[in-house]
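Co-fold these.
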Amino acid sequence: MVHTLIGSLPEGNTALYCFCGPNGPGDVMESGNKTISENAQRELESIFGDDLVSSPEEMTVHGYDAANLIFRPDLVAYVRDRDQVAAALKLANRELFPVVPRGAGVGFSGGALPVRGGLVLNFTRMNRILAIDTENLTADVEPGVVTGDLHSEVEKHDLFYPPDPASSDYCTIGGNIAENAGGPRAFKYGVTEHFVLGLEAITPTGEVINAGGRTIKNVAGYNLLKLLIGSEGTLGVVTKAILRLIPKPKTERTTRLFFPDNDSAARCVAAIIAARVVPATLEFVDEASLGAVRDNLGAEIDPAHKAMLLVKVDGHPAAVEDEAREVAEIARSLGCSEVSVSSGPEEEDDIWRLRNNLSPSVGKLANTKLNEDVVVPRSRIPDLMRAAAGIADRRRLLIVNFGHSGDGNIHVNFMYDRFDADERSRVEQGVRELMEEVVRLEGAVSGEHGIGVMKQDFLGLQYDGPTLEVMRTIKRSLDPNNILNPGKILPEEEA
Amino acid sequence: MLLPPLKRPPDDASEIERELYEKITQCVRCGVCLHTCPTYRELIEEASSPRGRIALIRALYEGEGDISPELHKFLYGCLECRACETACPNNVVFHNIIEWGKERLAEKDLIPRSGRYFKKLFLRRFFRRAKSLDRLMAFLRFYRWSGLRALVRLTRFLKLLPWHLYDLEDLMPRSLGRHRPVRKKWTYTLKPEGEVRGRILFFSGCIADHWLQGANHATVNLLLNAGFEVIVPASQQCCGALHVHLGETEIGHELARENVDAFAEVDPGGEALIISNAAGCGAVLKGYGEMLKHEPEYAERAASFSARVRDISELLASLDGALPPLRPLQKRVTWDDPCHLIHGQQIKDQPRQLIRRIPDVEFVELPECDWCCGSAGVYNLTNYQMSMSLLERKLENLKQTGAEILVTANPGCLLQLRAGVRYAKLDVEVLHIVELLNQHLIV
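Predicted complex below.
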């Protein structure tokens, strides 16, 4: 069967090998090999009723996520409740077909792609906020709740759910939990795992389990929560989450800092942290990205400005005042060429406009953007930036960097032409060099997008054989038939 | 892992198809469009989202996968509000893609029969020739005032017909226009009092020129008061928006050519600005250049035509001090962005500035003001249910503002919102922005 190609490929250029048959992307799943028998399909119909769909159109639109690869599933079910999930997984183990959970399908690592066909479970309609407990500061939600909807709902009660991936407006909590999503606020508040108290989940063999609970302190038994969170839908399917909320910060204030070069901006990040200021977000925009924004927005930015930091502090008004002043002083001492501080919500929007214009502006630089969400310890950011510049130089590539520098998570974007075979291979080499450098700097090959299918080649750089073997053992023992989201994270899991 | 190389279009693809393929593959499926798409949000259905529709059209283009009758539902379910274009970080020109997809479906005969009749009757007849539309409108006036309507309502005859005609008929405005369309009325150049600051060619629209004559009169009056000479080219036709939105691209192009000619007749030098007060028309008129760029005879003139098109708000807001002062209005006013103004023409601030110029006005923002009201050209005829859900949503938001006047700037939106306010029995006046401004001119 064609699907099994993935995961058992020779070393090296797997991408070209897998996806670039004579017909290019999308032909991998066009073999017509159905993984679900007619018998199994009938049983699925009895489980899901009209929510089981099979039209070619539905298969097309469940064949992609934001990783921009295409693998069409055989069937799609819009999930309504947990018992359906359990029943479907039990059936899948009996009939041996893959099951892939999916939220909004906006991940960058291909986590929601049915790379071996099978059944996609679409959770976007299982989207109720079940309860907001203002006494214990928790929220009970179904996995299809859109993260941004949760934000606005809890903020009505003056509460706060900090994780804020850039896709908050449309991604789902279920997807956030599967990928352990971060976001700009991670530096001060942490990532998704720090705000999940309990999960109801279905194991790959179809058993309903409960991990964690409702309390902040909970050391009863193994920590299954941490095992499930970030497992990219390979160890369990979340059907309900109990989330931790905190009081909403009273005020926030953003300071925009321009620097004459990348290096002084990178050093400023380290200095702010060394001074014990903890901004809610600390966004870094490098020279090439800033140049792209300048080209896109016109002459708003002085050409002498080569790098930008956006530092948002939040909390009690008096503390916010103090911290904003301290940030400005540090920046000036490091050669910052312009400081502006917001004084209200409108100015706040104005300051963030530049940052929000970043993606569209950078997108114009080339027809393809490969976004590597690497992360290093904060103090190593200047090293990472120098390494990226070195790679760009040696390999004659365009690399632009921006991201959440407060937590060391810099998005290194390779901008290239997908039609140009030579440039493609240089990008491939450049990415590998970057990953090696990140590991050398004691960082991680993925900060928030996950491994999925996109980064399988690099997991082995970060972890040694025995560590990977423990991961494989966990997967095998929970999912003996390799039913749940097969072909993800671990490169040779069945080899 | 790298992304796979892009597929290239087939060797025998035409220039237009090649360009289209580039536009299709510009979509990287990041999903930013999802939450801005009214149909995705209402249905929570990937195939009814912008990136989903693009993926479906890409499969259609590449000839991959089978086609089921559902394809029609997903593609023609699109409002073409273009909110996704505003949101798209990759500048995907969505409306070109969806229009191509709809056209292919029409070609392949994958449209239900009722849709085919609708197209034949309306697009190829009434909206094809301004004169045919004049006759239809005359009939509707007769229908309304003769008592025939009362009879039809009494017998519930319309309930027997498809497309919710019974409910749709109720969407018709109270006044069907007592005057002649301005296109027929003012066949001469209108002169302002005093100094002339320029010349304007007014695009009067098709439906609007019959059913929303107040807006057209107000537009002309404002232009005269701002010191412009106004010409209403007599041989202008429908802008073609309805046609291109429903996959009748060829007729759209014919209308574009005829309009370019009609405006050249009265302004051979091609110098005067062309003003539209209908957001939907304006967006299409601004696109004539792109539409006709492969036709040597028209390319240059169409580009010049499009470059001179302005929405009335765009023009008025840019005139500093040219408008006479306005009388104060002590009311709470809100603004609903027509999709083809905010998303189609990226005009957002100008109407708000103009409303705020009226002294004493309490301007409040309408929640989800950049969401489609469900009118979307003839969408309320073709997709009645979705249209009404969106209208309900709009009215809920309107209630929250407590506004006494709702201002907008597109004929379709005006008809839809006026009907909505009537159904919901809200005490809100729905006005075109030019009507509001014109009412408060101190002359």
